[in-house]
Amino acid sequence: MNNIPAIYEDDHLAVFNKPPGLLTIPAPGGREKDFTSLLNSRNRGEEGLPRFHPCHRLDRETSGLIIYAKGKSAQKKMMDIFRGRAVEKTYLAVLHGSPAEGKKAIRSPIEGKPASTYYEVLLRRPAFSVVCASPETGRTNQLRIHFTGIGHPIVGEARFVFRRDFVLKAKRVMLHAWQLEFRHPYSGKGIVLSAPLPVDIRNFFLKHGVDPGQFTPPRGAPI
User: Fold this and answer.
1) Does the pLDDT at position 197 exceed 60?
2) How far apart, in whole angstroms, are the C-alpha atoms of residue 13 and residue 20?
3) CA separation (Å) from 199 to 36, 63, 106, 129, 209?
4) Rounded to an integer, what is the distance from CA 49 to the centroid of its chain?
5) What are phi and psi of 217, to 5 degrees?
6) Residue 88 backbone phi and psi in degrees, to 5
7) What are the residues facing 103 on neighbouring strands?
């Protein structure tokens, strides 16, 4: 983990493909490994190398794209873009069962705050479906809560449902932050980035006779 390549990097930002099983930032007490500390441990003691500051978060079980800023000023600019809902986030998720066909919207408040998620089914199998999901809002655990709410929790979910109630098993939530699209906070350039599916999701597909290569991000290859 000491050599973590960036999906994208410039003088202000770096985007990484976070593996599952790591918090984004240290938890109280600091007893668990977190991705931000691992990134910054690479540069500790090296003069002139930047310190990475997360601009948003992925939960421990979610893999995929996460944006870091090189410095507090860049972090504030990028976080303002997130607050303005000007970052388009696309996730790939494996759901229990078979939700309705077509492009659908889930609009259910979370902790009393409005929350909206759009999704489309990419593949159906008897026991599960693969969906492409885009949260319009950024509530904590939004996708996990919304898909549970429509009766099709993400495979591996154990916080919002009883895992024993479902036949399919996974060691973690089958949720991957697949693609990000935003305008650079300094140059204004449009950036589209995607992250390859992690090994555990690919292996899940192969185990169930699904070719993982058939899934491509909505906007194609990363820049």
Assistant:
1) yes
2) 22
3) 22, 11, 29, 18, 15
4) 26
5) -60, 155
6) -90, 115
7) 120
Helix (H, G, I), strand (E, B) or coil at 105: strand
Active site residues: 59
Rg of the Cα atoms in the chain: 18
The two tokens of residue 202 are 């690919």
CA distances from 92 to 22, 63, 73, 75, 190 (A): 18, 10, 31, 26, 22
Q: What percent of the chain has pLDDT over 70?
A: 93
- The pTM of this model reads 0.91
CB 36 within 8 A of CB 214: no
Residue 217 to residue 176: CA distance in whole angstroms: 11
pLDDT tens for each residue of 86-126: 999 999 999 999 998 888 999 999 999 999 999 999 999 99
Q: Which residue has the tokens 């691992």?
A: 38
**Residue 175 in 3-state DSSP?**
strand
Joined together, the tokens standing for residue 182 give 């935003």
